[in-house]
Amino acid sequence: MKYILETKNLVKSFGGVHAVDHLSINIPEKMITGLVGPNGSGKTTLINMLSGFSPHNSGEIFFSDVERKKIMPWENQVYGITRTFQQVRLFDQMSVLDNILVILTERAPFYALFERHSGYHLKCAEDILKKIDLYEKRFHNAADLSYGQRKLLEIGRVLAMDANIILFDEPFAGLFPEVIKKIEKIVLNLKQEGKSVVLVEHNMAIIRKLCDHLIVMDAGKLLAEGHPEKVLSEKIVLEAYLGE
């Protein structure tokens, strides 16, 4: 099995408390990896470190065997990595279409507003909006979308990045079943396209349905790792995560 992302003895502390405690994990290439654990187990902290939104105190992070000693969010494009957030981040006063176009063209928002979009960019943006079922809303401001539609638009922006590694931080949280099915289809399509996906999720049914590999964290440490069905049947996981 080839790994696209690895950590070795990764540590992140807040006020002397290890949110991530000497964590060593492997993320397989071109698969969907689930990242689960109780609240406060360090999942989002790990995603923040991997994407450069929080520096790590010690340890090593490797992307395709290349160590990144200091990760800056604006460098992620070079390494082919992108992410979503628990709290959706959009340009609310821009149209749905422009929220996609700004990713497809100039990365700096100020310059993107004044860049002329080619027919190619426009077609790519419209194709993405059709994939996420927001084409009919393309001229609406992002601020006017429902919660589920905002989640879909954020995922559309991820698709526009065309990254090799996608970190999803609870993309299904608070959504109706209809929207969940749409996002499940998008995640599976990413795998079919050869992308590597990391999925932070609490819903075990979704984990079983989508994931090829599973990592369980508890108190910042690795609790178990492997095939989802095998990992979820381990006693230590049942006791720590499922409360059984």
TrEMBL record:
Protein keywords: ATP-binding, Nucleotide-binding, Transport
PROSITE patterns membership: ABC_TRANSPORTER_1 (PS00211), ABC_TRANSPORTER_2 (PS50893)
Transport as UniProt keyword: yes
Residue ranges of domain ABC transporter in the record: 5-244
GO molecular function list: ATP binding; ATP hydrolysis activity
Any single GO CC term annotated in Swiss-Prot or TrEMBL for this entry: plasma membrane
InterPro entries: AAA+_ATPase, ABC_AA/LPS_Transport, ABC_transporter-like_ATP-bd, ABC_transporter-like_CS, P-loop_NTPase
Pfam short name (any one): ABC_tran
SUPFAM superfamilies linked to this entry: P-loop containing nucleoside triphosphate hydrolases
Protein name: ABC transporter domain-containing protein
Protein species of origin: Candidatus Nomurabacteria bacterium RIFCSPLOWO2_12_FULL_41_10
